[in-house]
Amino acid sequence: MDVVLLGSGNVATHLAKAIKSAGHQIVQVYSRSINNAQILAKQVNARHTNDLRNIADADIFIISVSDDAIPQIVSQLNLQNKLTLHTSGSTDIAILNPVSKSIGVLYPLQSFSKQRTIDFKTIPIAVEGNSDKTTSEIEKFAFGLSRNVFRLNFAKRLALHVAAVFACNFTNHLYTLAEKILSKESLDFELLKPLIKETADRIKQYHPEDVQTGPAVRKDILTLSKHKEYLNDNAELNNLYTLLSQSIINLHYDN
Amino acid sequence: MDVVLLGSGNVATHLAKAIKSAGHQIVQVYSRSINNAQILAKQVNARHTNDLRNIADADIFIISVSDDAIPQIVSQLNLQNKLTLHTSGSTDIAILNPVSKSIGVLYPLQSFSKQRTIDFKTIPIAVEGNSDKTTSEIEKFAFGLSRNVFRLNFAKRLALHVAAVFACNFTNHLYTLAEKILSKESLDFELLKPLIKETADRIKQYHPEDVQTGPAVRKDILTLSKHKEYLNDNAELNNLYTLLSQSIINLHYDN
Predict the structure, then answer these.
(1) What's the CA gap between B12 and B133, in Å, rounded?
(2) pLDDT confidence of residue B255
(3) Which of B148, B166, B169 to probe the A interface (max A CBs under 10 A)?
């Protein structure tokens, strides 16, 4: 199939490569930034543009930009009956109504950073279409990209995205905060790596709630107060420490 | 060496097995709960007691209980010159002054849950003694348990413990919260596992700050507001979402 990809960020980049690997043709990459459009287009042997009036013809049009940027693209695009998808976890399918009669969602649940190669075949992909026929088409296309494709309506997709923010984006930020705490004391982040690995590995086998460790779940008030005292000069870390510890206590002591 | 272990929790349990594997003898396990003392003692072929007046003779005494419980043990123990250690990340070595003239800390930096077997040899162990001679003795003993032993004073050990709470305890709690969000929508936690794995794997290679993803680091205000609206009926999750997102924005946009 011929695909036009609108977007050049992390998701668009990883998706473009997966689409090409699945044997499809990316005919064109659009981006507001002609430079970014060109960089991605070059990697997948496609044409590029930064002008929505010059969008090429194709079988599938995939809008893979930040949620903020979808409305502007939609307002300038008329693709009639051509299958048009977005890749957003938190956007209703209906946003694409002005663009085409055949619309849907292809939401890959993974954290894409430019630096990392990811095996797309293992990534869960949530799909939704505005008709049974369209949903089947999207599903078929998605199964070319990944083994793990499932149908999901907007409410559940939104929940999945929110959960992913907690489990991935916030988790990575906690790693960053931990690194900052260490570097202030000239300690190496390497020290935490066995701990981070064990924490992630453990939940392959156990429910995270059942393997919670640390001072909060032990209600070790003395340690909690020492840690808060240590963080006393950093209001942000102190607030986070308090809120997360209280959340652990609330969950495990049912009050 | 003959070791008396005071404590029967997760750290004490994993430590007892590692000590035995290193060729030492656990002569006695003490716990406030005679039942817990017996359970652990049985596993390492030791005697057990719940009476601090009946502590056996040994070469090393290791107090491995929650920080809250250390003072009570210390107040009832007089071991004169016998090497006495605690395993707490957040407790000053000086707490052991009333117990012995030869005191120190052996702080294994790992998250121990009863369910999991852990390769102790890879665990970073921070040691500290109240004299050079004592520190060397502790270091030697620790190197029998792990390849990764290093000296650390109290201020740095406390920072390490705080950082570990962020990187491990809080991270595991975020996994739990994500699981709760999914289960409310009848979605399977399995869906998040590739994402959790990638998030943890990625930092083996990259600095976490450099691979932050998600709506906050993109300043995708629309997605952030949709997520907060979704969490509107749960004040705790909503607060955590707001505070963590703001912390990401603060860190990455330097304001």
Answers:
(1) 25
(2) 56
(3) B166
Residue with tokens 């907007």: A154
Is B1 touching A (CB cutoff 8 A)?
A: no
What digits encode the pLDDT tens for the residues A98-146? 999 999 999 999 888 877 888 999 999 999 999 999 999 999 999 999 9
User: Does A197 contact B at CB distance below 8 Å?
Assistant: yes
Query: Chain B neighbours among A 78-137 (CB < 8 Å)?
Result: 88, 90, 109-113, 115-116, 118, 122-124
Give φ, ψ of A74 to 5 degrees: -60, -40
Picking from B108, B137, B140, the residue whose alpha carbon sits closest to that of residue B11 is B108
Phi then psi for residue B28, to 5 deg, are: -155, 145
Please enumerate in sequence order all residues whose Cβ is within 8 A of that of A210, keeping only pairs 6 or more positions apart, or say none.
Answer: B115
pLDDT in tens, A201-250: 999 999 999 999 999 999 999 999 999 999 999 999 999 999 999 999 99
Q: Which residues of chain A neighbour B202 with C-beta distances below 8 Å?
A: 111, 113, 116, 172
Q: Give the side-chain half-sphere CA count within 13 A for B48.
A: 19
- Rounded to the nearest 10 degrees, what angle do helices B34-43 and B10-21 cross at? 30
Residues of B with Cβ-Cβ distance to A242 under 8 angstroms:
none
CA-nearest residue to B88 within chain A is: A223
* CA–CA separation, B207 and B219 (whole Å): 20
Say if the Cβ atoms of B175 and A184 lie within 8 Å: no
Dist CA B200 CA A76 (whole Å): 40
Contact B138, B157 (CB under 8 A): no
- For chain B positions 203-222, those within 8 Å of chain A (CB to CB) are 203-218, 220-222
The pLDDT of residue A255 is 56
Interface test with B, best of A87, A166, A203, A204 (most B CBs within 10 A): A166
Q: What is the DSSP string of B89-157?
A: TTS-GGGGTTTBSSEEEEEE-S---TT----GGGS-EEEEESSHHHHHHHHHHHHHH-S-EEE--HHHH
Q: Provide the residue type at A9 as one letter.
A: G
Q: How far apart are CA A53 and CA A67, in angstroms?
A: 21
Output the DSSP codes for B151-186. E--HHHHHHHHHHHIIIIIIHHHHHHHHHHHHHHTT
Interface contact flag, A178 B197, Cβ < 8 Å = no
The number of angstroms, rounded, from the C-alpha of A112 to the middle of its chain's C-alpha atoms is 7
Rounded to a whole number of angstroms, the distance between the first and last alpha carbons of chain B is 55
Burial class (CB in 10 A: 0-12, 13-18, 19+), B122: middle
**Run of H or E residues at B25:** strand B25-30
Residue B89 and residue B109: Cα distance in Å, rounded?
8
d(CA B9, CA A81): 64
